[in-house]
Amino acid sequence: MAIDAVLTRIDEALPHALDRLMTLLRIPSISTDPAFKDDCLAAAQWLVNELTDIGFSAQLRPTPGHPMVTATTPGDGPKLLFYGHYDVQPVDPLDLWNTPPFEPQLQDTPKGKVIRGRGASDDKGQLMTFIEACRAYKDVNGQLPPNLLIFLEGEEESGSPSLVPFMKEHAAELTSSLALICDTSMVSPGVPSISGSLRGMLKEEFTLMGPKIDLHSGHYGGPGLNPLREISKLIASLHDDTGRVTITGFYDGVHEVPAQQLEQWKTCGFNEAEYLNSVGFTKAHGETGYSTLEQQWARPTVEINGLWGGYQGAGSKTVIPAQAHCKITCRLVGEQDPAHIRTQLREHLEARLPEDAALRWDTSLPGAKAAFMDTSRPEFEAARQALSDEWKRDAVIVGMGGSIPIAGYFKDILGMDSMLIGFAHDDDAIHSPNEKYNVESFHKGTRSWARILEALTH
Amino acid sequence: MAIDAVLTRIDEALPHALDRLMTLLRIPSISTDPAFKDDCLAAAQWLVNELTDIGFSAQLRPTPGHPMVTATTPGDGPKLLFYGHYDVQPVDPLDLWNTPPFEPQLQDTPKGKVIRGRGASDDKGQLMTFIEACRAYKDVNGQLPPNLLIFLEGEEESGSPSLVPFMKEHAAELTSSLALICDTSMVSPGVPSISGSLRGMLKEEFTLMGPKIDLHSGHYGGPGLNPLREISKLIASLHDDTGRVTITGFYDGVHEVPAQQLEQWKTCGFNEAEYLNSVGFTKAHGETGYSTLEQQWARPTVEINGLWGGYQGAGSKTVIPAQAHCKITCRLVGEQDPAHIRTQLREHLEARLPEDAALRWDTSLPGAKAAFMDTSRPEFEAARQALSDEWKRDAVIVGMGGSIPIAGYFKDILGMDSMLIGFAHDDDAIHSPNEKYNVESFHKGTRSWARILEALTH
Question: A-contacting residues of B 117-156, CB under 8 Å?
């Protein structure tokens, strides 16, 4: 069988595939920071070159931000789109990295060999599993799988501002029968997982402005309004003692998880204690009465991602600062509407401002609703079978706590379903210092895509 | 009269005195930041050289931190000590300065000519008023005032860690009949003010530690404990809705201001509306039921001076950070005991920590109790008369919201009273960007000290 030859080819070529991934990981393509604009371009260009080498018809596609990469193969049959992103998260706090984030390394760990470096898992390692599967397919079959479109963006970690305009402009070119997305994790190591839902996302950033200038806390300590105290009160007001969000109307469109689905989640191989203990928690800290998986997959959140103001240097400074700053993200579920949540969040905070203080809203990105996959499509059953064959364990349909707005955009703008299959581990430390990707994930991930491509294109 | 000749000499030599101040202001002697250690030494050495030039017997006195400067004159009569500090506050946020902080400039403003730069007021400009008065006195009289001891430190803005050990070691040398301190402001422009009390100070800094590593808010948003949310709740818990501090026992030793004193404060020339409006406030934001002056001079505070954690860069990062940080200062009044307040503050915060979080206390400096001056001493009446003569307006005894722990140390360690006379304005922006000192404060401040020296040494 051709698939066996392809799998063997993947096994033999693994060292070369790892070398190529390392090369991509050395490019610091941090999309949120303008200082790395040229690096984002370099990563995109490297991918165009690689895809062209393999035999794709690949192009760098300019946008007002970082470029897209598209690559196609000729052929008949249902068109399949593969999506990934070549940009990565910022690396701070840099002093917590044990190795330089953009000098990737292969390391032996008690849990097996890993690739260490920023983007190793999210999403360079994951997207390369698909590209390497295509390469092996071509090596064995002499041609690439038919009617493929690889579509890679470089702004996923900064809210994808160019994505929707690009999709609208190139709708006919992009619309396919199904989108494959490799940017998610397995519910437990070794348990192949297909995501049935993703949480949505809303980002907000604001500055609380108090006195006109920084004040001396000896002179104004007492009569002076302190923005750091006021911003703390605002943040503290966002949740009640049970962890429930207090914003009016926040839970509009949030549904309880059906009992049957909760039962399935209990048997999906998720190790709650290990998931929590691995990062230092003895219990789930979200809404009282919900399990860890419900809190992660089916409940909305308001999280503070950054908070700062006043003096942060060595020693002390007796200052009442003029301003305080906060970065917030909300994870959305069900039919929660990001525009509505934004309005309600802003009203909630504005209503609690004291006299002589004002808020400046520093963001204007649109949010993304939660996304739900049509798991009844035959491709899902084919993929489940392919994954189960590869991992020698039944693949499961799981929820996902992360937000991959692209799935919602594909559905809303192109009318296209998505199938999300990823091989990351929960301890990959994506978005954190010392990010890694297990070599097993990379290797068996590549083999998984080869099996799925075989199943979907024959 | 000799005093008239001294005053004339001060008037004539003003341009040279300003030049000397500018030279001192160009030295970035930021004591809290170890990067400026050599600059602190340079400032101290510059003062030793100047004082030696004038005729003092001046010395650089090493400490484990930044050096002290001492300078003496021979002679009989009651020994007078003058205290000031040559170190300055950090300059951040640097982007809010209109001119470089260590390139001082003379500027014309609607309220008169000012010296602009870090330390112009606090405390280089103020301490130089005394030194320039001594210089003019010498120029006219051929010798310096008798039995003076100038004592300057370089750690006032960083908690004076070397001060108490130095005072204890050199108690006999330092003990004088009275300490003169020039580090305070006038209650209103043109109203000469002698401080009758100072608030005490306690500094705390802590880190709230949550997860073992930074987490992805998609994966752990919900079940994950967020240190930024938790630190906000801790800070919000420190005050009730009336602005009263909620720490158990915090108000032990705090007394209400006697009605008679409140009456005096009402007529001391303080312009409450201008004081608040000048920095953007329409009202006093401290404890309900207390006037601005009570909140500033007679009520204790818990202020947040720095707060930070998570991502602060451009764009967004969907992180739940492992840690959050906070710098706190308390201003103390009455008999409040800083050691007791520290214990109670820490207990208050520890008791409100959720499971899986811990606090690390990052400070260990001793605090300082509030200080009260013995205004019944005859030197106070003599100084009041001298100040009233100079400013053509009755000098007033006022409270002070700031903390100058040295006054308490002088009393507790050396049994010595202090007299605090300063010429700063409330809008000098000390500890803030664009710090300034009015040339009138510098000029008439120098003249004031000449008059006071004349009154106290004859």
Answer: none
Where do the DSSP E strands lie in B263-382? 301-310, 319-320, 323-332, 358-361, 371-372
Record: contact B318-A329, CB cut-off 8 A: yes
- Tokens found for residue A298: 């089916």
Q: In this structure, what DSSP letter does residue B378 have?
A: H
Does pTM top 0.90 for this prediction?
no
**Alpha-carbon gap, residue B331 to B352, rounded angstroms:** 23
349-388 in A: which are within 8 Å (CB) of B?
A: 354-356, 363
Q: Which of residues 408-427 of B touch A (CB under 8 A)?
A: 426
Residues in B touching A322 (Cβ below 8 Å): 96
CA distances from B217 to A237, B184, B208, B315, B416 (A): 20, 48, 18, 16, 58
The CATH homologous superfamily to which domain B2-198+370-456 belongs is Zn peptidases (3.40.630.10)
Distances (CA, A) of A128 to A25, A37, A198, A375, B433: 11, 22, 22, 25, 50
HSE-up (13 A, CA, CB side) for residue A60: 15
- Of all residues in chain B, the one with the smallest CA distance to A315 is B32
Q: What is the CATH number of domain A200-254+300-361?
A: 3.30.70.360
Q: What is the ipTM of this complex?
A: 0.80
- Interface touch B403/A218, C-beta < 8 Å: yes
**Domain extent listing, chain A:** 2-198+370-456, 200-254+300-361
Other CB atoms within 10 A of residue B248 CB = 12
Partner-chain contact A317 B306, CB within 8 Å = yes
Determine how β-strand B148-153 pairs with β-strand B68-72: antiparallel
pLDDT digits (tens, 9 = 90+) for B156-193: 998 899 999 999 999 999 999 999 999 999 988 999 99
- C-beta atoms of B33 and A426 within 8 A: no
User: What count of other Cβ atoms lies within 10 Å of the Cβ of residue A434?
Assistant: 19
What residue type is assigned to position A159 of the chain?
Answer: G
Residue identified by tokens 């193969």 is A73
Q: Are the C-beta atoms of B7 and B132 separated by less than 8 Å?
A: no
Q: Do residue B315 and residue A214 have CB atoms under 8 angstroms apart?
A: no
Averaged in consecutive runs of 10 residues, what is the pLDDT profile of chain A (458 residues)? 91 98 98 96 98 98 97 95 97 93 97 97 98 98 96 93 96 97 92 92 96 92 97 98 98 92 85 93 97 95 98 90 97 95 98 98 85 91 96 91 85 94 93 95 98 93
**Residue A75: what residue type?**
G
Contact (CB, 8 A) for B200 and B405: yes
Residue with tokens 């009336």: B242
The region of weakest confidence among B190-204, B347-361, B400-414 is: B400-414
Residue B195 touches chain A, beta carbons under 8 Å:
no
List chain B residues with CB under 8 Å of A329.
Answer: 217, 221, 316, 318
Q: Chains A, B: CB contacts under 8 A, how many? A: 352
Q: Does A205 touch chain B (CB under 8 A)?
A: yes
Give me B329's structure tokens: 């200062």
Q: Which two tokens stand for residue B348?
A: 């208050």
**B162/chain A closest Cα distance in angstroms:** 14
In order, the DSSP letters of B70-131 are EEE----SS-EEEEEE--B----SGGG-SS-TTS-EEEEETTEEEEESTTTTTTHHHHHHHH
